């Protein structure tokens, strides 16, 4: 099995590494912050990040340095950085590991980003369920404040960087960046209409950057080892660096694997994660979290980088790779994901709010042996009427599992419908949305 | 009243934000920790502290699934039922719990010890089936572990089987 140098999981995989400040400093922690503060101009830090090719690890893959560059240049009022630690995309569990095992790594990244964009305040928006993660981060923040890495006059350079933890309370949509901002302002997490974008009108209508935990955790290494080094890893020029892929499902060794972007699904699944858990062969892969269109074994040689996965008709998304074995019902899998989206639709846009409910009801009818052939048209039609008609990308996300399973496993839908009987199980009552 | 009991904490929370209303989720957490659910009195008091109206507080409380508007059992068991856990047996886990507790999701045992719920993905998809009980995660749950966890909780109020910081793949299987 090929082995690769790890960047983000390297510290925590050292025996005895606790993630406490002393350990992090021993492996060179906060040297990157010392290197930039007051010594490299903020615009040059941004240029460095742009040059590294780093792209967002939260889902959309937007180039990080370019995003920072959108902040107004001549603006002197307050700006904000928000670290997106909401991690709620089914199949994704990498930020949790980065938070719980090496909290200072991401804090240093946050401090560097604050300096680069000129923000004196950062909020870490962490999902409410991560109470262990929140406790670990609070402890790390207290250590960082005491050591002068966070707070007023950081490392006596005159730079102020305050970092606060803000706990969510159970709502997938708050991972969407503008819903996150609404939530942080003490409101229901309903996404905002864009434009204006957060870069100009973000938190409290001030210029704001939202970045994912993993994105930010890469920054200390880009500073320490240089953008050229980072840009040489992975599949340059468009997908540089490593990704922490979360492998779940019917797999022998589920877990997080940090590998350079550009290795194949075959290598990730069969070499790093040990292959299928039983004798049953592979049937389906979800390549990038619940919002990504399903792949088949035909796609095993697709490369895990932004462009290749998109070209093959799905997305690298959040890095959550779910593997399903032969015998798994694809209609059931689509329904399970659809129930998630139905539960989590925030209700702002009617195509998504109503459409998700109709999709669940139609899928349930088929599973409960009450389907009709027209239902397949209805499903496709519903999806078409949701696509592109919502304020945020949730709408496009929720239709991916339905459309892709219909595309590759239409026969399974048809088989269930052919088996339909008038006495099929009664339709289930829709649970109340919270 | 929160204001008397948590005066310093509330001041500290408010000082983190330039706009008072941002303190809403932190104050609701404080209220829920205090009373195990968010009471009407707490919502009114928080509205007063933040200088917003009670309905503005209520609309937020009802948006977020983690806030309880009614008392729940002493131990709130929440089983993840999203797809990735579903693939590795979350329905079976739910069945074990239902059989032992004699309740369905959404219900509380008559002794008010346990409330059972199903929830969506808790970011432990590599270590399913899993459940959250109050603040703690329990991962890779087996039938035998369900028995131990329930017995531990009844006896000691906590269980050593709860998760510590994220389990690394190479350590998986070697833990207790
Ligand atoms: C419905 C929805 C949910 C999202 N959830 C998350 C999330 O949990 N974590 C995250 O980092 N990004 C999430 N995103 C992406 C964010 O909107 C945003 O693009 C990202 O945080 C930007 O950071 P990055 O550029 O570093 O990736 C979500 C997007 C949508 C549309
Ligand atoms: S699917 Fe259960 S934790 Fe993610």
Explain the overall architecture.
The complex is a heterodimer of chains A (434) and B (176). Chain A is α/β, with parallel strands linked by helices. Chain A folds into three domains: 11-231, NADH-ubiquinone oxidoreductase 51kDa subunit (Rossmann fold, 3-Layer(aba) Sandwich), CATH 3.40.50; 237-325, Ubiquitin-like (UB roll); 330-418, de novo design (two linked rop proteins) (Up-down Bundle), CATH 1.20.1440.230. Chain A contains 18 helices and eleven strands. Chain A has helices spanning 21-26, 31-36, 42-52, 64-69, 94-101, 103-117, 131-146, 177-184, 213-217, 219-225, 227-231, 265-272, 306-311, 330-344, 350-367, 374-386, 394-408, 410-418, and strands spanning 80-85, 121-126, 151-154, 159-167, 208-212, 234-235, 239-240, 242-249, 255-260, 282-286, 320-325. In chain A, helix 14 packs antiparallel against helix 15 and helix 14 (330-344) packs antiparallel against helix 17. Chain A starts with 20 loop residues before the first helix and ends in a 16-residue tail after the last helix. Chain B has 176 residues and is α+β, with helices and mostly antiparallel strands. Chain B has two domains: 2-61, NADH-quinone oxidoreductase subunit E (Arc Repressor Mutant, subunit A); 75-164, 3-Layer(aba) Sandwich (Glutaredoxin). Chain B has eight helices and four strands. Chain B has helices spanning 2-5, 7-15, 24-35, 40-50, 54-61, 83-87, 90-101, 143-156; strands spanning 75-80, 114-119, 131-133, 136-138. Chain B has a four-stranded mixed beta sheet with strand order 2-1-3-4, covered by helices on one side. The longest helix of chain B has 14 residues, at 143-156. Chain B starts with a helix and ends in a 20-residue tail after the last helix. At the A-B interface, helix 5, helix 7, strand 4, strand 8 and strand 9 of A face helix 3 and helix 6 of B. The complex binds flavin mononucleotide and FE2/S2 (inorganic) cluster. The site of FE2/S2 (inorganic) cluster has 11 residues of chain B, from helix 6.
